[in-house]
Design a protein that fits this description.
By secondary structure, the protein is α/β, with parallel strands linked by helices. It contains 17 helices and 13 strands. 42% of the residues are buried.
Length: 475
């Protein structure tokens, strides 16, 4: 069976929880052939992999959402026929979208995106949409915004897809559009595995964004909802990491009979007998943050909270462990913040092997504004370390438990609440017995339900069921 993994903004270019999961999944099935279709921002990222691809990855394809239109030749205007016009009209107006006709329009014809978006048909469709819904806005601003909303989707619709038996998409959104289109074009199977709920994550980002204002935020949000609705309708199976995420998928329009919970898993043996504390750690209480230094991880709040905690408990030391090259500007601001605050004992290690550091930590910390089911918490539990985490994604379920009685494995705090986060660090630093017990509780929770073997078994069955349904050879 040939599996096409469709990812957006992560593997194999960026390290992190989702990328690690994809890499581990591919390695779990060495006899299957995998093709990677990665959605990235621009051609400047092309080929810049941070992972050594496993041998069973035979191809890597790239889709650039910020690209140029290579089909600009000739001065002839683009004119849609009646069927094409109606299909594109249904897409913009979001009324029973005729997706199959939209797919055929962009897959079967050499459509110039420049000519389409600057053409009379698009102007007429958008003008009608504007008159019906947004006539209080300045039309020229509205028109250019709608063009910017549709350009990345149109690049997606023009993508020439590699053929595969199963398209395994790690999100809805643009990835979900590709999976849906592949199913329509090739009759392939279509699986979605959401680590975070894509539509909700994009909505949260847009509500906080400065680059888009007012009702234009709603237009972007509606676009992502539209794409996710398509993906949920076309998918054969939709997995999530925990029960509440599954319920969100259903609320967003995914048929409940398609949904399945498949929790994350970690390799316990990889974090067994790791190096412990060193002479450098004498007299210190180490707080470890394993993350990418990016805004969504809210490292600035972490540093601010640590500075408050350090005043109350001088033994504290913060280790920020992870790459700083994904958003170099933000990483630089974090370094400058630590210097400006004059706080000591903040270490930025850069990219590391967690086995070299996790055993030295007394606790882990995560102050994200959005998460799914963080592997960093599970890895900390596997090393008997309690966690402090914001109340996002499945952090509460991991730390306080959902279907077990192992007890608390750390402290959950509110997003961007500097005082709560600082106090949690102080409380764990000053109570060694509680810290150790929470670490043990977390370890028992991982052993019970979050081992990588559990995850592999579920996906082995999922893949085999798809293979059998198509009459293909399994491995």
């Amino acid at each position: 069976m040939r599996v096409c993994i469709v990812v957006e903004g992560c593997y194999p270019y960026v390290t992190g929880g989702v990328s690690s999961w994809v890499h581990g999944l591919i390695q779990s099935f060495p006899k299957l052939e995998f093709v990677i279709l990665s959605i990235i921002s621009s051609r400047s990222m092309s080929g810049k992999f941070t992972y050594q691809l496993p041998e069973n990855v035979t191809e890597v394809h790239e889709l650039y959402l910020e690209d140029v239109d290579w089909n600009r030749k000739g001065r002839k205007k683009l004119k849609l026929n009646k069927t094409e016009y109606q299909a594109f009209h249904s897409l913009v107006h979001n009324r029973n979208v005729e997706w199959e006709a939209v797919f055929r329009l962009f897959q079967e014809k050499p459509v110039s995106l420049d000519k389409l978006l600057m053409g009379e048909d698009f102007l007429k469709i958008v003008r009608e949409y504007y008159d019906q819904n947004y006539s209080q806005l300045v039309f020229s601003d509205f028109l250019w915004t709608v063009r910017s909303v549709y350009l990345p989707l149109l690049f997606t619709l023009k993508m020439k897809l590699p053929k595969a038996d199963l398209y395994h998409c790690l999100a809805t959104g643009y990835a979900g559009v590709l999976g849906s289109m592949a199913k329509e074009l090739y009759g392939s199977r279509f699986l979605i595995s959401e680590h975070g709920i894509y539509t909700r994550e994009r909505e949260e980002e847009l509500l906080r964004a400065d680059w888009v204002q007012g009702v234009y935020k709603n237009i972007w949000i509606d676009q992502f909802k539209k794409m996710s609705k398509l993906a949920y309708e076309k998918a054969d199976l939709v997995t999530s990491l925990y029960e509440y995420a599954r319920e969100l998928q259903v609320d967003l329009g995914c048929p409940v009979e398609k949904t399945m919970v498949t929790p994350n898993g970690v390799a316990l043996e990889r974090l067994t007998d790791i190096p412990g504390r060193t002479e450098e750690d004498e007299g210190k209480i180490n707080v470890g943050a394993v993350l990418r230094v990016t805004p969504i991880k809210d490292v600035k709040t972490m540093i601010q909270a640590f500075s408050f905690a350090k005043e109350r408990e001088p033994r504290l030391k913060l280790w920020i462990m992870g790459p700083r090259d994904e958003d170099e500007g933000y990483a630089r601001e974090c370094l400058e913040q630590a210097e400006t605050l004059g706080v000591t004992d903040v270490v930025f290690t850069g990219r590391i092997d967690i086995r070299d550091y996790l055993g030295r930590m007394d606790m882990t910390i995560l102050t994200s504004i959005s998460e799914g089911q963080p592997l960093t918490i599970l890895e900390g539990f596997a090393a008997h370390k309690p966690a402090i985490a914001t109340d996002v994604g499945n952090c509460r379920g991991l730390i306080y438990g959902e279907n077990d009685d192992f007890g608390d494995a750390g402290i959950v705090v509110h997003i961007m609440n500097v005082e709560e986060i600082a106090q949690a660090m102080v409380d764990l630093a000053r109570n060694e017995s509680m810290r150790l017990q929470m670490g043990e509780n977390g370890y028992q929770r991982v052993v019970s339900g979050y081992q990588i073997g559990h995850m592999r078994s579920k996906y082995r069955k999922i893949y085999k069921d798809f293979s059998d349904s198509m009459g293909l050879r399994w491995e």
